[in-house]
Amino acid sequence: MNIPSLITLSAFLALSSVQTAPAAGVTFIDVPQDNKGPTLESAIWYPCAGNPTQVDIGFDHSTAVKDCPLLGEKLPLIVISHGVGGWYGNFHTLAEQMADAGFVVAAINHPRDGGRSKTRDPGDIASMTQRPQDMTRLIDFILTSWSDGSQIDATRIGFFGFSRGGFTGLGMIGGNPDWKKLLDNCPVYPGNRFCAQIRAGDIPPLTADPRIIAAVIADPAGGNLFTPESLGRVTVPVQIWGSEYGGDGLSPADAASVARYLASKPEYRLVPKSGHFSFLPPCSAEFAKLAADSGDTELCTDAAGFDRVAFHKQFNADVLAFFRKYLTDTKQP
């Protein structure tokens, strides 16, 4: 073989290596409307091979390979629940990293309080109570109707939630709030009807899903509504993150009280100098402009001395380590 042929062969092998490098795949599905709720828009990240690009995910872009074949069998599943006004792409950097590590990660737009929803009504208490059911419908669809659902291990499902998403997760693992505790501090933002609905009674309990075997709860909204009794049914491993300064109506005590009241001692991390929105990933230039244009600059702003980029590098690693510990047979991908 002559030198040019060797060079050509080497180039071909190098190119093939690049094309099959591990990457996060991403695809988009709709969970169809049924008698339990409306259509749920969803994004799913998963292990694949290919060259990642910038994929449009709504308010931002994800570094992933769109619609590539899913690699692996019996993969663990993580479902993600966003906060009020959020969307399925809020934690795309975490989802990408977990997909690279061998997890399937699915997130939805909650129809009653998502930022992309045309039917949003965050002032209705149903925007809180319906959330666990949204997530259960997502899990049901992925396991039974998604084209790649047979490659997921239904016995290894975890949950990640931020803000109202954290509240959602507490419900899914067996917690139920004492809504009457809210009557001493009723929300006052325009359109909120929580207290009137609580006084009228008939607030349905949150729907637990026993398929969730580990949960990460980040700065949960409504954490002060839970009691030792209302968290008494929670038995799964839980990792709780709390901000030092709170914000957006949340007190730093919300996460702390949940951690204190859980019967099985959770992993509890209080993040120094952090505010509530510090748990959102570092804002891209695109998302920062969108936040500024809508008057929501606090989404991308932190207290002096807080490094969101450095924090999320450690945060994502710690969340991944937690799920590896409880959802996989080894701590390595």
TrEMBL record:
Secretion signal: which residues?
1-23
Arranged from A to Z, the UniProt key words for this protein are: Hydrolase, Lipid degradation, Lipid metabolism, Signal
Asked whether the UniProt record includes Lipid metabolism among its keywords, one would answer yes
Q: Which InterPro entries match?
A: AB_hydrolase_fold, Hydrolase_4, UCP031982_abhydr
Tell me the GO molecular function terms. 1-alkyl-2-acetylglycerophosphocholine esterase activity
Note the Pfam families from the entry: Hydrolase_4 (PF12146)
Q: Which Gene3D superfamilies does UniProt cross-reference here? A: alpha/beta hydrolase
* One GO biological process term: lipid catabolic process
The residues covered by the Serine aminopeptidase S33 domain are: 77-185
- Under which name does UniProt file this protein? Putative dienelactone hydrolase
